Amino acid sequence: MFNTTEIEELADRKRLLVAESELHRQTLVTEYARLQNSIVGMQAVVESGNSVYRIASSIASLVGGLFLERKKENGSGWLKTALFGWQMAARLKPFWTAFRRGQRTGSEGTPQ
Questions:
Q1: Is the whole-model pTM more than 0.85?
Q2: How distant, in Å, are the alpha carbons of 26, 73, 89 from that of 97?
Q3: How many CA atoms lie within 13 A of 11 on its CB side?
Q4: Does 65 or 16 have the greater pLDDT score?
């Protein structure tokens, strides 16, 4: 059937394939960890971009409201100002609470 040299060659080939397979497994684990770190970094960039966008839009609304010429009609100027202030407070409240929450926790999310 098979002579011993052929069997030994097949056994050597099998050991080589097993070693190569283990090397590929370790490479895959390393690449997966690198990919996860990249995804976490991208999430941080996207989240900070979203918050910057929200802050910028709120500031633009505030500046626009402050420099907008308004006609004061029979005492209704204070009502518009109060309504504008209330709207701005409602927009800025999530940022304020997130800022306060960030002050109370450290970088790992544990209370200081």
A1: no
A2: 44, 36, 12
A3: 7
A4: 16
